[in-house]
Amino acid sequence: MGAGPADHDPGSPDAPSQTPSDDVPAEDPVLGEALDDFDAAVEHGADELHDLEDAVEHDIAEVLAERDQFRDIAQRLQADFDNYRKRATAQSADEVDRATGRLAEALLPVLDAAEAAFVRHPDEVGPLLNVMLTELKKHGLESLDLDGVAFDPEVAEAVAHEPGDGGEVVVAEVLRSGYRWRGRTLRAAMVRTRD
Questions:
Q1: Which residues is 179 bridged to in the sheet?
Q2: Which residues contact 55 (CB under 8 A, 6 or more apart)?
Q3: Interval 36-77: pLDDT, tens
Q4: Where along the chain do its domains lie?
């Protein structure tokens, strides 16, 4: 027997479709209020999110400015420390130079005596004088060689003068040797000049 329209099961796939308006209930006031509250909450949340974004951007700007300030301070401190270290190193080197210069200056009478002995006994004193001068040169002592050069009051002290042809004043004879210590005049030479 065939199934007729009256025998048709409404849940079967062949059942006639219902219109959407049949399933939609009339507007529910509770649901409408809930939707309005939800929309308001979403809008309020969006406003709060926007305010939070503004606050975060402001905080980031403050943090970056603070970072730049601290970087500037650190760079200044580093430069100050580098300058201090350079000054301290230079000051320490100057103190060492002065101390060793005083020691070298204290040895000058010994060198003078050795030079005087060399004039009388060159074969016996010469090797000792050469060793002394070589060792002192290694540490910064420099003997001034002024014979025949123009007179310079920075490195020579004139104790005698002999007339010449009237030209430039030159060193005619070194009476006592002069020395430099690491580029500075330790003791001026005592000389006789001629013009």
A1: 143, 187
A2: none
A3: 778 888 888 788 888 888 888 888 989 999 999 999 999 999
A4: 141-195
CA distance linking residue 153 with residue 83, whole number of Å: 36
Calpha distance 131→112 (Å, rounded): 14
Q: pLDDT by residue (tens digit) across 112-168?
A: 999 999 999 999 999 999 999 999 999 889 999 999 999 999 999 999 999 888 789
Q: Are 144 and 151 in contact (CB under 8 A)?
A: no
Spell out the SS3 assignment of the chain: CCCCHHHCCCCCCCCCCCCHHHHCCCCCHHHHHHHHHHHHHHHHHHHHHHHHHHHHHHHHHHHHHHHHHHHHHHHHHHHHHHHHHHHHHHHHHHHHHHHHHHHHHHHHHHHHHHHHHHHHCHHHHHHHHHHHHHHHHHCCEEECCCCCCECCCCCEEEEEEECCCCCCCEEEEEEECCEEECCEEEECEEEEEEC
| CATH code of the region 141-195 | 2.30.22.10
